[in-house]
């Protein structure tokens, strides 16, 4: 479960402060898959990073119960000087997970060959994303945060990723951000639309789609 209370976030621009999240109150219950729709630049990734604790709001409070993943698809947390294996070992220690099991799962899942034992700074963006997704699936979370950029690799890798993700959904909550309604329909039972700094929830996916598309 994650609850947002008055969450506000703004960025400084030449034209002044740009508010992307404006006093948002929201509840993401346990055991539910929620999709967040928003146009490019609406603040979806910012909201996801705040939900996971990778970024702090300017105002407001976040209440988290259970283990929450970092945003899957976000590989910015890797230390570029460390190898993929060393990064996996470090993360496994932080979460108190079996280190060797985490390393082996991430290595096999990412399918990046010898690069797994090379510094992450030598990776392409796709290789980073593969490793980030594999490492995320190697750990058990109560809530998984998913960025739309997780669709990396060839069709075989994407299919494997979908299967692994579906398995996690059977026992965990999921929050997905995307600008595509098709993604939300595939994975979520409820949806919210982020527009003008505000987050509006819908129990009916069709209503969410209509509201979202009306803003195009």
Explain this structure.
The structure is a single chain. The protein is built from 7 helices and 9 strands. Helix 2 crosses helix 3 and helix 3 crosses helix 4. Helix content is about 35%, strand content about 30%. By secondary structure, the chain is an alpha/beta fold. The protein is globular, with a radius of gyration of 17 Å. The protein has a domain of about 120 residues: P-loop containing nucleotide triphosphate hydrolases (Rossmann fold, 3-Layer(aba) Sandwich). The strands form 2 sheets. The chain has a 6-stranded mixed β-sheet, with helices on both faces. Strands 2-1-4 form a 3-stranded antiparallel β-sheet, with helices on one face.
Which descriptors apply to this entry?
216 residues; alpha/beta; Rossmann fold; 7 helices; 29% strand
Give the SSE map.
Elements: E1 2-13, E2 16-28, E3 33-37, H1 44-52, E4 59-64, E5 68-72, H2 84-95, H3 99-110, H4 125-138, E6 143-147, H5 155-169, E7 173-178, H6 181-187, E8 190-195, E9 198-202, H7 205-214
Parallel strand pairs: 3-7, 3-8, 5-6, 6-7
Antiparallel strand pairs: 1-2, 1-4, 8-9
The CATH C-level class name of the domain at 1-67 and 142-153 and 172-216: Alpha Beta
Helix and strand content put the structural class at: alpha/beta
Question: What is the second-level CATH architecture of the domain at 1-67 and 142-153 and 172-216?
Answer: 3-Layer(aba) Sandwich
Low-confidence runs of at least 5 consecutive residues: none
CATH homologous superfamily assignment of the domain at 1-67 and 142-153 and 172-216:
P-loop containing nucleotide triphosphate hydrolases
CATH topology of the domain at 1-67 and 142-153 and 172-216: Rossmann fold
Count every helix, treating DSSP H or I runs of 4 or more residues as helices.
Answer: 7
**How are helices and strands ordered from N to C?**
EEEHEEHHHEHEHEEH
Biggest β-sheet strands, sense, barrel: 6 strands, mixed
């Amino acid at each position: 479960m994650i609850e947002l209370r008055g969450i506000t976030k703004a960025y400084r621009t030449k034209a002044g402060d740009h508010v992307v999240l404006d006093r948002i109150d929201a509840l993401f219950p346990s055991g539910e898959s929620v999709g967040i729709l928003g146009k490019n630049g609406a603040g979806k990734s910012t909201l996801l990073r705040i939900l996971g604790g990778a970024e702090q709001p300017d105002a407001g409070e976040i209440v988290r119960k259970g283990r929450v993943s970092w945003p899957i698809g976000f590989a910015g947390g890797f230390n570029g000087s460390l190898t993929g294996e060393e990064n996996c070992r470090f993360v496994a220690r932080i979460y108190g997970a079996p280190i060797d099991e985490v390393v082996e799962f991430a290595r096999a899942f990412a399918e990046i060959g010898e690069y797994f034992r090379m510094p992450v700074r030598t990776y392409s963006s796709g290789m980073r994303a593969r490793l980030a997704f594999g490492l995320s699936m190697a750990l058990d979370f109560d809530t998984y945060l998913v960025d739309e950029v997780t669709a990396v690799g060839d069709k075989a890798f994407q299919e494997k990723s979908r299967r692994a993700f579906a398995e996690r959904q059977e026992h965990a909550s999921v929050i997905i951000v995307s600008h595509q309604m098709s993604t939300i329909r595939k994975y979520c039972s409820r949806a919210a639309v982020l527009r003008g700094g505000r987050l509006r929830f819908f129990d009916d996916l069709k209503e969410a789609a209509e509201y979202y598309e009306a803003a195009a």
